[in-house]
Structures are given as structure tokens and as C-alpha cells.
TrEMBL record, chain B:
NCBIfam families, A to Z: ccmA, PRK13538.1
Gene this chain is encoded by: ccmA
Superkingdom field: Bacteria
GO terms for biological process, alphabetical: cytochrome complex assembly
Transmembrane segments: none
Keyword Cell wall biogenesis/degradation: no
Pfam families xref list: ABC_tran
Protein's name according to its UniProt entry: Cytochrome c biogenesis heme-transporting ATPase CcmA
Keywords: ATP-binding, Cytochrome c-type biogenesis, Membrane, Nucleotide-binding, Translocase, Transport
Length: 249, 209, 222
């Protein structure tokens, strides 16, 4: 099969619906196992950090949430680009599905960051470079969601959000770097906390587990949302009616 | 129909789950006028916007001089004048200033002579330097129509060109259409009122589809 | 080139004759800057510390609010359709429009900023930095804002939505711009910040018109 036939097959919502139905357990099961297992491992079996005590354990939720939220934005921008360039409708549906999941993960990262901040820095919010960057990512997500809802026409909404997502993706490195620069300018390195690079390997393994689990979780949620979107957009077609009445698969 | 310059094949468009037209095919050759008729909401404006290249909400094939419009839309746009519902005029600027801008967009250099000629043709000589907000709706419409004569084109796409034009003006516009037609131009227009039979326009009724 | 000039000329002429388009952002700038001493107290020392940030944030907001009208009137009177159907490349057209808009909004904002600097007790050493950083920075703001304006021009309620879209993208400009002024006040060289703003400017001019053009096509095609 040539690349293009493959590409077009992928672009067919019906084929994707059936394919994703088969794929979903392969994401759902690892997501649940890795996340729950990773949390249990990280919370109960990893020795406490000698500086932060037990409070560091929140990284098993915080780090995956922020990393996957970032990855989700890139996924959204890529889907948007595919939609704009090849006019693939499925890509628009994927893009629309990623946005709320990514925004929720970003919010989770902010929330866990704040909870972590209290025992570490003695305050819920610090204008630290990393937290500020996550906050800006959250704003970018909110912008996409707001734009999405402002359009009445679905196709125009998808294209507009695709443009905005691409613009955002191009800007994210610049924004992150400028925030980094801003922070280093104003804050003589007085606050230093354990980063991933200096982490002990016994702490790292559960982190890798929850990180992988979180990626699977993202994939799972995106597939769920996309399948929903497919059913809604193709609601007038025969095959969707068959699916809904239980006649087909 | 080997001489057809604009070809539309199996156009399909829907709006809000309502099919506007389906399997609509027609073509246009030099010296032909095509009127698109139909009741309100039949999709006349949508069809014109699709043909002009403003809307991508359709399926089907559009060809200009035998080539797919996807690939040579710049050439198509250069050879086409589209006049939509809006006047496309800045009210604080004079007709001359507005048309200078329009000409620059289309790459017409040294346009002033053409603009004065065009404004004269549409009966607005003497108004060149008045701000457009001082002109009546009909006169503004005429300024917009003057764009047709500022630069040459092979196809005019006119959406309701007779709006806000008096009866004498309608006859005048029809004479311009006839002139353009004899010169080998093509016209695609929507209008609620029937055109004068002497124009020999073909009619597509969207309501019948 | 004549295309760019013709577009800029028409837009600036229209904006000059209408008046409000270039004067409203200026009035907004002055008024909001005047609110700050009322809100935080008249202490000159405190104001001097906050002045670079205040001036930059308010100039940024003024520029953003002005950007909303960038394509609005062209969309309403259908000149935007002529732009899209002219057969001329869209890149120079949107760039010309955006630059004309900057000449009518960002440039006057930069020029009056030293005056407001005096009102907010900005030390004189920061004046040139303020003027220059705003002059470069507001171009970037206009170009980025134009993307948001193009995306929202077809929507009935564009104004607030525009700010949600655009403000996160403005952050690097704000950081480097206000830092230039702060550095100048502290007596150090602010050329690095200006150079960074210049880099942002070049990047924005090279890339943003592509997004603006695509966004305009989407907004007209609804």
C-alpha cells in the first residue's frame, strides 16, 4: 500500500472509528496500570527526599501532567497543520479533542505545583520560571478554547484554531526562553530545587512509569473525544446510524 | 462546448445541514451571460462566492481555461472582477482615492487616467474628489461598478448589481453588459428581476434544483 | 513596492480623516497611566520603581485594543474581498496594512511615552530606552496582534476574544521591552534587550504575514 492510500484511509472517519475502537484497550490498560502502579510505587515505596521529606512525592503527578500538557499542545498544532495543508477533516477532529484534555492537564500541573510550593517555598504561588511557563501554556489553551467556541461554523472554527495553534507552537520556545531569561534576571539563584536531572534513580523509575502512563492516558482521552466528535459530525450517515442502533461495530 | 472558459462540474454545497445545490454543472464561453436565479436562501450568493474563490465550502471541480482552479487561482483572480454585496469603499475617501487603491491591488500602474474614464462612464464625473460619504447609495454603487472599467477582465461576477440603482440606471448597466458581451467578455450575475431579453442571457434557476 | 505604498497611503489617509482611530489609543494610554498614581499612591520613589512596567503594560494594552480595528472596517465594507481576490500576493498586502496601522497607533504611542514617563517619575536615564523599546516593540505587537485581529474579524464579539488570544503571545515583547527600560534606569547598557526586540521584529515580519493571510481567508470564508 502506498503512503497516499494509507493517508487517505487514515483520513476516513469511519475507518478511524473502527480502528480506534480496537486500539483503545491498548492505551487504556497501560494508562490505568502505569498511573496507579506508578503512584503506589512513588507514594509508598520510594524513600523520602532528605531535603523535602515526603512532599516531593507530588512530582509523580506534577511532572507527567506538565510534560504531557506540553506534548498535547504540540500534538494539537501538528494536527492543525495537517488539517490546513492536506484538508484532512479527521485531523481537525483530533485537534478539537486534544484542546480540553491539554487544558485540564495544564491546570492539574498548576494545581499540583501550587500544592507542592506550600511546603517547599512556604507559599502557594511563586513566580518561578517553570510555573510561569506552565501558566502561559494554560493561557494559550484557554485562547484556543475561546476561539473554538466563538465560531458558529465548525469548519471555520477548526481552521482558525489550527492557525492559532501553529502560531502558538512557534511562539512557545520563544516565550519559554524569554520567561527563563526574565527569571534569571530578577531572581539571583536563591531558590533551587531538585530537578529531574539530579534525581536519584530509585525516584526516577516510578516517574518514568507515571510519565508513560500519562501519555497513554492522553492518547486514550483523545481517542474517546475524537470518536465522539466523529459520531456527531457523521450523524447523518448510514454507518453511524448502524453503530448507534447496534447493527454494526 | 469546447470553447468553454469557465467550467463547473458537479458542484455540491450545503449550509447548516441543508443542501443548497447538488450536481450543479454548467460552463461559460466567451460572450456569454449567465444569470443565476432563485428565491431568497437558494444559495445564489454562496454560489457566486464559491465561483469567485472566496468560499471553499463546496465539493466539485472548477476549471478556468482548462486548468483546475486550485492551481491557477492567481491568474483567474487577475482576469475576474467580483462585485459582492458590500461596496468596498472607504466612506471618508473620495472615489478617486478608493479606486486608486483598487487599481494598485490589481497591479494597474498609472491608473488615474483609467479611473477618470471609468468614473465618467458610470456618470460620476465631477464627483472624483468628493468623499464617498457625501454620495447617495446609488452613487456609491456606481463607484463600485466603475471598478469594472478601471482594469480589463475576462469575467465579471456580479452579485445583485441592480441594488439601489434607478430604472434608468438598470438600462444603463444592461447596456454595459451588452457592450462587454460583444467584446467577448463573460458575465455571471444574480438578480431578482429578469434581464432584458436582448441580452440573450442563459438562466440557471437554483430553486429548481 | 508601489502596491505596498498604495495600501499604506489609503489606510493612513482613511485613519487620519477619521481621527478617532489614531487618537483613541493615545487617550487610552494617557488616561490609564494617570490611573496608576491614583491607585498606588503619589510617592515618587515607588512610582519610579514601577514606571517601566506600568508604561509598557499600558502601551501594550493600548496597542492591542487598537489592533481590533485593523481589519474590521475592511471586513464590514467588503474591501477585504477585493484584497483576497486581487490576484496580488497576500504577504506584502497584509504587511503593508499592518505597518500602516502601526504608523497610526504604535508610533504615536512611542512618541508620547516620554511625556508619560515624566508623569510617572521615570528617571531621565530611562527615557531613550522607553522610546526606542516601544518604537521597536509596538511593531511586533501590531504584527502579532494582526494575527488575532484577522482570526476574530468575522466574529460579532471580537474584542475580548482578541485579547485572550493575543496576550500570551505578547509576553516576550513585554519582558524584553520593560527590561530595557529598567536596565537603562539602573544605568547599564540596554542594547542587548533592543537587539532581542529587533530579532523578534524580524522573525515576526518574516512569519506572521503568512498566518495573517491564512486567517483572513478563513474569516471571509464563513
Amino acid at each position: 500500500m502506498s503512503f497516499w492510500t494509507y493517508f487517505h484511509k487514515w483520513g476516513s472517519p469511519r475507518w478511524f472509528y473502527q480502528f480506534s475502537g480496537r486500539l483503545m484497550p491498548w492505551l487504556a490498560i497501560p494508562a490505568v496500570v502505569l498511573l496507579l502502579g506508578g503512584f503506589a510505587w512513588g507514594l509508598a515505596f520510594v524513600p523520602p527526599d532528605f531535603k523535602q521529606g515526603n512532599s516531593f512525592r507530588i512530582i509523580y503527578l506534577h511532572v507527567p501532567a506538565s510534560a504531557v500538557a506540553m506534548g498535547a499542545y504540540m500534538l494539537m498544532a501538528t494536527a492543525g497543520a495537517i488539517h490546513l495543508i492536506w484538508r484532512m477533516k479527521l485531523a481537525a477532529m483530533v485537534m478539537k479533542s486534544v484542546a480540553p484534555v491539554g487544558a485540564a492537564l495544564t491546570f492539574l500541573a498548576l494545581l499540583t505545583g501550587a500544592v507542592w510550593g506550600k511546603p517547599t517555598w512556604g507559599t502557594y504561588w511563586v513566580w518561578d520560571a517553570r510555573i510561569t511557563s506552565v501558566l502561559i501554556l494554560f493561557f494559550l489553551y484557554l485562547g484556543i478554547l475561546a476561539l473554538q467556541q466563538a465560531f458558529e461554523n465548525q469548519e471555520a472554527a477548526a481552521k482558525a484554531c489550527a492557525v492559532l495553534a501553529i502560531v502558538g507552537a512557534v511562539n512557545i520556545p520563544i516565550i519559554y526562553w524569554s520567561v527563563e531569561w526574565w527569571y534569571s534576571l530578577h531572581q539571583p539563584a536563591s531558590i533551587k530545587f531538585v530537578g529531574e536531572s539530579t534525581i536519584h534513580s530509585s525516584m526516577l523509575r516510578p516517574l518514568i512509569a507515571t510519565l508513560t502512563g500519562m501519555y497513554c492516558f492522553l492518547g486514550w482521552m483523545v481517542l474517546l473525544n475524537t470518536r465522539n466528535e466523529i459520531l456527531y459530525r457523521e450523524r447523518n450517515t448510514r454507518w453511524v446510524k448502524d453503530v448507534l442502533t447496534g447493527a454494526g461495530s | 462546448m469546447s470553447s468553454a472558459i469557465l467550467q463547473c462540474e458537479q458542484l455540491y454545497s450545503e449550509r447548516d445541514d441543508r443542501v443548497l445545490f447538488a450536481d450543479l454543472s454548467f460552463s461559460l464561453a466567451a460572450g456569454e451571460i449567465l444569470q443565476i436565479a432563485g428565491p431568497n436562501g437558494a444559495g445564489k450568493t454562496s454560489l457566486l462566492r464559491i465561483l469567485a474563490g472566496l468560499s471553499s465550502r463546496f465539493e466539485g471541480e472548477l476549471r478556468w481555461r482548462g486548468q483546475s482552479m486550485l492551481h491557477n487561482c492567481a491568474q483567474f483572480h487577475r482576469e475576474t472582477h467580483y462585485l459582492g454585496h458590500g461596496a468596498g469603499l472607504k466612506a471618508v475617501l473620495s472615489p478617486l482615492e478608493n479606486l486608486r487603491w483598487s487599481c494598485a491591488l490589481r497591479g494597474v500602474s498609472q491608473a488615474d487616467e483609467a479611473i477618470f474614464g471609468a468614473l465618467d462612464k458610470v456618470g460620476l464625473s465631477g464627483y472624483e474628489y468628493h468623499p464617498c460619504l457625501a454620495l447617495s447609495a446609488g452613487q456609491q454603487r456606481r463607484v463600485n461598478l466603475a471598478r469594472l472599467f478601471c482594469s480589463s477582465a475576462a469575467l465579471w461576477i456580479l452579485d445583485e448589481p441592480f441594488t439601489a440603482i434607478d430604472q434608468k440606471g438598470v438600462a444603463e448597466i444592461e447596456s454595459w453588459l451588452a457592450e462587454f458581451k460583444t467584446a467577448g467578455g463573460m458575465v455571471l450575475l444574480t438578480s431578482h428581476q429578469p434581464l432584458s431579453p436582448s441580452l440573450g442571457a442563459n438562466v440557471i434557476d437554483l430553486g429548481a434544483h | 513596492m508601489s502596491l505596498v505604498w498604495a495600501i499604506m497611503r489609503r489606510d493612513m489617509l482613511a485613519s487620519l480623516r477619521r481621527g478617532s482611530e489614531w487618537s483613541n489609543p493615545l487617550i487610552f494610554f494617557v488616561m490609564v497611566c494617570a490611573l496608576f498614581p491614583l491607585g498606588i499612591g503619589p510617592d515618587p520613589k515607588q512610582l519610579a520603581v514601577l514606571a517601566p512596567g506600568i508604561l509598557w503594560v499600558v502601551a501594550l494594552l493600548a496597542s492591542m485594543l487598537a489592533t481590533d480595528s485593523l481589519f474590521r472596517s475592511d471586513f464590514d465594507d467588503a474591501s477585504l474581498e477585493q484584497v483576497l481576490l486581487s490576484g496580488s500576493p497576500l504577504f506584502p498586502q497584509v504587511l503593508a496594512k499592518t505597518l500602516a496601522h502601526w504608523c497610526m497607533t504604535g508610533l504615536p504611542l512611542s512618541l508620547v511615552s516620554p511625556l508619560l514617563g515624566v508623569l510617572l517619575q521615570l528617571p531621565t536615564s530611562g527615557m531613550w530606552a522607553l522610546l526606542l523599546s516601544l518604537a521597536i516593540g509596538t511593531v511586533v505587537l501590531s504584527v502579532i496582534g494582526a494575527i488575532g485581529a484577522a482570526l476574530t474579524v468575522g466574529l460579532r464579539k471580537g474584542g475580548l476574544l482578541l485579547s485572550l488570544i493575543v496576550l500570551p503571545l505578547y509576553i516576550p515583547v513585554l519582558i524584553f521591552g520593560s527590561s530595557a527600560v529598567q536596565t537603562a534606569v539602573e544605568g547599564a547598557s540596554y542594547t542587548p534587550q533592543l537587539a532581542l526586540l529587533g530579532a523578534l521584529l524580524l522573525g515576526a515580519i518574516a512569519l506572521a504575514p503568512l498566518a495573517i493571510g491564512a486567517a483572513l481567508r478563513i474569516s471571509v470564508d464563513q
